[in-house]
From TrEMBL:
Annotated organism of origin: Weissella viridescens (Lactobacillus viridescens)
The protein's name: Ribosomal protein L11 methyltransferase
Keyword vocabulary terms for this entry: Cytoplasm, Methyltransferase, Ribonucleoprotein, Ribosomal protein, S-adenosyl-L-methionine, Transferase
PANTHER family: ELECTRON TRANSFER FLAVOPROTEIN BETA SUBUNIT LYSINE METHYLTRANSFERASE
Subcellular location: Cytoplasm
Catalytic activity: L-lysyl-[protein] + 3 S-adenosyl-L-methionine = N(6),N(6),N(6)-trimethyl-L-lysyl-[protein] + 3 S-adenosyl-L-homocysteine + 3 H(+)
């Protein structure tokens, strides 16, 4: 099967937003080549083992490539994609140079390339992400393996925002919690929550395609067999409440409308873990949390990205 590739040259801070633009334009998969991944990469044993000089890829900024079936008139989409990428500046994201280039690519070539560089990666002290086609044995007694199938979307969970959220889960979860994972994506945070002892996990995402993708990864991890996942635009269709922990790894532009919805699903003492926050948005997130009476406990940082651990105060704190 033939495919068409549309590649956007951009910056690290805009990678997730550009990926969303391509998916919303109809891309059936996204591949990310981000120079910062080389800086943050750790092998499963905690040591860097790759000779990056021998690995093809960008050394500055990032390239995000979306893949469209041959029967899609991609040339008609380029102008809209380019306009939306350039419009990210209005959200405080540097997407320069924002060039958009189209070229054909064979499906077999694509599959070979992105699988070649997807290997087990130790993300935190306890969690290692492994692609489903790799055979991997834990190196430490307390190491947990999360198996993921990116399908035709490239990604290892090594983005700083995901690492921050996984670290926050390890810090907060003690066992027995009911967890709500808003915008679950690959399902990685839901799976990690189960490994950290959560008794119940509900994941949400914006449409059936995203939910189906998350469910596929949940099915690869027996620990997550009882995780529920449903379609919901933020919390619009969530009918459960009184969660002990709410996690959300999304851009600040999505977190800001989410925060006012949190009171409907939390209770006194609920802990709230947020990530996907670029450096120029951290103050706005803290202000939005305070406006809902939520207390910020810890600010986490990895590079230019931030995470927040907050909680809903109990009666003694009010």
């Amino acid at each position: 099967m033939s495919w068409q590739e549309v590649t956007v040259t951009t910056q690290n801070e805009a990678v997730e937003a550009v990926s969303n633009i391509l998916i919303e334009a109809g891309a059936e998969g996204v591949q990310i080549d981000d120079a910062e991944d080389r800086d943050h990469y750790q092998a499963s044993d905690g040591t860097v083992t790759i000779d990056w000089d021998s690995v093809p890829g960008v050394t500055q900024g990032a390239e995000v490539s979306g893949y469209f079936p041959a029967d899609v008139h991609v040339s008609e989409l380029l102008g809209g994609i380019r306009e939306r990428v350039q419009g990210l500046q209005a959200f405080g994201l540097n997407a320069t140079p924002g060039t958009v280039v189209q070229k054909p690519v064979e499906d077999a070539e694509w599959a070979t390339e992105w699988q070649k560089y997807y290997h087990p990666v130790r993300l935190t002290r306890y969690l290692t992400v492994v692609p489903k086609w790799e055979t991997y044995q834990p190196q430490m007694p307390d190491e947990h393996v999360i198996v993921l199938d990116p399908g035709m979307a490239f990604g290892t969970g090594t983005h700083p925002t995901t690492k921050l959220m996984l670290q926050a889960e390890e810090f907060v979860l003690r066992g027995g919690e009911r967890v709500l994972d808003v915008g679950t994506g690959s399902g990685i945070l839901s799976i990690a929550a189960k490994y950290m002892g959560a008794s119940e996990v509900l994941g949400t995402d914006v449409d059936e395609v995203a939910v189906k993708s998350a469910q596929g990864n949940l099915d690869l991890n027996p620990i997550a067999s009882d995780v529920k996942v449903q379609v919901s635009d933020l919390l619009a269709d969530v009918t459960e409440s009184d969660f002990d922990v709410v996690v959300a790894n999304m851009l600040a532009e999505v977190l800001l409308p989410l925060i006012p919805q949190l009171p409907a699903v939390i209770k006194p003492g609920t802990q709230i873990l947020l990530s996907g926050i670029y450096q120029d948005k951290i103050e706005a997130i803290q202000t939005a949390l305070r406006a809902q009476g939520l207390l910020v406990d810890q600010i986490m940082q990895l590079g230019e990205w931030y995470g927040v651990i907050a909680h809903n105060p109990t009666g003694e704190e009010v």
